[in-house]
Amino acid sequence: MIRTRTARRIAAAAAFGGGGVGILTGAMVAVLYTEAKIARRTVGVPVGQPPTADGVYGEFPEFDGPPIRLAVLGDSSAAGLGVDNPLHTPGALLACGLAAVAERPVQLVNVAKSGAQSSDLERQVTLALEAEPEVAMIMVGANDVTHQVRPADSVRRLEQATRRLLAAGTEVVVGTCPDLGTIEPIAQPLRYLARQWSRSLAAAQTIAVVEAGGRTVSIGALLGPEFAARPGDLFGPDRFHPSAEGYSTAAMAILPSVCAALDLWPLDEERPDSFRGEGVLPIAVAAVEAVEEGGTEVAGTQVAGNERGPRGRWALLRHRRRRRIPAPTQSDEQADGQAEGQIEGQADGQAAGKTEGQAEGQAGDGKERKGATGTGPGGRDAAEGTDAPSSSLI
């Protein structure tokens, strides 16, 4: 189990500089380096780009107001790498679920980039703010672990991104670092260390985000027991990225928190239920408990009018009830436009260096695949920037 001392140390280092995950012997480093190379070779380099799902979700003819603006930031898990249909990406699933709860359309802008580390959040926030989002969902951290980024640096960049979004009037929900110990191609003892590092980072992310004014949802344990029990269903072909069903599982866990951030969740579920293990705790304790149970939300709260107690910031820990997300839908006109745009883009790219006849044939094959082009602010830039570095796993 992750110690509260470890999470606090990483979060404190993020605020004041410094920090790390420990020292390994030379022999252990050699073993881990070899296992990492084997894991990367097994997983391989991510092929293709995540489908771009920017657009408006939910049709409500009687509603004549503006749509809710949702921004998605982070790495390939936020972008939806591993699925072909844009409607199966986390952003589309969240947009559809949010639209169903709010009973109004939702405008999705996804600026997540495959292979991104927390250092890329500054660029992504700039793109996302062009759309003036009302709420933003961030999923990041796995690449920081696989690239051995100092946890303090990773957490500091996430905190800065959170504060910048909140300052612009955007509510922030962060899906914390997934548990990399569930990844099949990673062998022991690297798998054990990956689990410890990713869980420590997730706890520290929660402390930093809640201190900044946002809220978090633990993804690590959520993708632990369920993914370990059903790897064929919840993992994609590379056994690293989630499948369509895996993304749906994560989206169902995050959706209630996104709705609550906008005051759209039922009020009768806002009171903490002690029988469900919900309650007020010091932030470091809540962060560690959240890591142990997937789908746990942590947000700041007050006790007797005070935000802080003897052990730091007060936090409210919740296990919100998940709701199945209805099948995402877009308007026929928008869906047709997205499909045509992706087909044209594929044909243009394939035509370079090939005969005209080959390009036409491949473009024809592409019509059988569903796709989408960026329609929201920042959508084109996000799509162009999804090539993952050769050393990236997420």
Automatic annotation (TrEMBL):
Boundaries of every SGNH hydrolase-type esterase domain copy: 72-247
Biased composition (Basic residues): 316-325
Alphabetical list of CDD domains matching this protein: FeeA_FeeB_like (cd01836)
Pfam families, per the entry: Lipase_GDSL_2
Spans annotated as Disordered: 296-394
Key words of the record: Hydrolase, Membrane, Transmembrane, Transmembrane helix
UniProt cross-references to SUPFAM superfamilies, sorted A to Z: SGNH hydrolase
Transmembrane segments: 12-33
GO molecular function: hydrolase activity
Domain of life: Bacteria
Name of the protein in question: SGNH/GDSL hydrolase family protein
Species this chain originates from: Streptodolium elevatio
